[in-house]
Amino acid sequence: MTPFSAASAPSALTDVVTVRLSGDDLKLISNHFEDKSPQEVLRWATDRFTPDIALACSLGSDDMVLVDMISKTAPQTRIFYLDTGVLFKETYTLRDEVIKRYGITPIQLLPDLTLEEQTAAHGANLWERDPDLCCNIRKVQPLVRFLSGLQAWITGIRRDQTPARANSGIVEFDKKFQLVKINPLAKWTEAMVWDYLKQNKVPYNPLHEQGYPSIGCLPCTSQVKPGEDPRSGRWRGFKKDECGLHCGATCPILPEGSSVAPQNGQGSK
Question: What is the pTM of this model?
Answer without folding.
Answer: 0.83
